[in-house]
Amino acid sequence: MDTLKVLKEKSQKRRQLLAQQLGAGSSENLSLVLGSQDDRNACSAFKKPKKESFTAICAENVREETGVIKQSPSSHNPPDEESDDVSEVRTYTDSSTFLKGTQSANPHNDYCQHFVDTGQRPQNFIRDVGLADRFEEYPKLKELIRLKDDLIAKKATPPMYLKCDLENFDFRDLNCKFDVILVEAPLEEYQRTYGMTNMKFWTWEEIMKLDIEEVSAPRSFIFLWCGSSDGLDLGRQCLRKWGFRRCEDICWIKTNINNPGHTKNLEPRALFQRTKEHCLMGIKGTVRRSTDGDFIHANIDIDLIISEEPEYGSIAKPEEIFHIIEHFCLGRRRLHVFGRDVTVRPGWLSIGPALTNSNFNGETYNSYFNKGPEDFLTGCTERIEALRPKSPPPKSKGGGPGGNNRGGNSRGGGNRARMNSRGRGSHRGRQ
After folding, report:
1. Which residues are 337's β-sheet partners?
2. Which residues contact 142 (CB under 8 A, 6 or more apart)?
3. Which residues contact residue 226 at a Cβ distance below 8 angstroms, ignoring those fewer than 6 apart?
4. Are 200 and 191 in contact (CB under 8 A)?
5. Global pTM?
6. DSSP label at 395?
7. pLDDT tops 90 at residue 4
8. Helical (H) or strand (E) element with 161
9. Which of 31, 84, 88, 277 is such that its CA lies 20 to 30 A from the CA of 242?
């Protein structure tokens, strides 16, 4: 009896919560909101129907719900004859028929349910995620990206690469301090999610032992791919050990347009499928968006990448991460740790055991940045400076026009009046 009482109390609480969600007021009105009371009234009206009228009612209900009905041979009988056969209907292939009780204004646009039915992930239906058509509706941003890409390509150093065993490699042998470091380690997590067995996987303890702090410039950034599970916490510990502060989290949302399904990337004891991956961004030194325009251009890209996941067994990352880094940081000394042959890129030095060859020469590489005190920077043009979104300068402590406003003498050469006029409209996620 106690168990029955507890079950009744839980049932009553569920009804109350459901009534609150549906706006029914009280649990007594649930039958009216869900239509169950009308259904019972309709059923009571047909307690003793004629067999042919019952068949007609079933056929009408099926036609109303699915629009498809398969006639049985008895449907060709004259109306005066009674038949014991009921019309056969098709097997339901999705759940659209049973969505009348949902809270959505248009339940047929339920992308989560669409994933259950077809295996197509909800992110597959986000528009304009590619680099080619993302800025079609924003001509100024499109021009800005084009101008920056042209300048980056013009100032990029020839691609260099060094095959080495990172477990025993001394980073000081590179004899260079880097403005940007991208770490793309083959995590143990990939062995579970991607089914890879043909390479050496790294634990977070081994990754933390890398001497990244030996090659990072006093003012620099790091980008660390950390997976989607325990790496989010352990990656932060690596950043602290290397002398960086976490300042951003770039998220890669993986689509499966070309190969939809439900059985990929399932981990043991996992309740949900993981369709995203994170790249932690760390900062070293003092870099402010409003005063360090010579070193960073903020507000150009967003912290989200939406692209097709690689084929099963591949640990490839989206190429867009290189575009985000190059658009953001104007430092030309860029290091890619755990690089591969397919990631060798102009303007980058790639090192790692997966490379098949080496062409790195320390003296030649450093000669690209020794021609002037600011030769390690990409630089800027007047048109780029006019187009790029600005961050508002910090408020002066003096509280007046004569105060020490640090945004006035920007190292990027920006016009303070123009920056003030932009206001806060150019926030980071505007595009």
Report:
1. 183, 351
2. 135, 136
3. 187, 232, 234, 235, 278, 279, 280
4. no
5. 0.68
6. P
7. no
8. strand 160-163
9. 277
- How is residue 267 written in tokens? 């981990």
Taking the C-alpha atoms of residue 412 and residue 386, their distance in angstroms, rounded to an integer, is 12
User: Residue 379: CB partners within 8 Å, gap ≥ 6?
Assistant: 151, 155, 330
Show the tokens assigned to 58. 């079933």
Q: Is the dihedral of CA 279, 284, 286, 287 positive or negative?
A: negative
Best CA proximity match to 176, nearest among 378, 377, 368? 368
3-state secondary structure 287-342: CCCCCCCCCECCCCCCCEEEEECCCCCCCCCCCHHHHHHHHHECECCEEEECCCHH
d(C-alpha 75, C-alpha 83), whole Å: 8
Count CA atoms within 13 Å of residue 339 on its CB side: 27
- String of DSSP letters for 220-288: EEEEEEEESSTHHHHHHHHHHHTT-EEEEEEEEEEE-SSS--SSTTPPTT-SS---EEEEEEEEES---
288-312 average pLDDT score = 89
Pairing between β-strand 216-227 and β-strand 245-255 as defined by DSSP bridges? unpaired
Model pLDDT, residue 117: 82
- pLDDT at residue number 249: 94
Question: Mean of the pLDDT values across residues 250-258?
Answer: 93
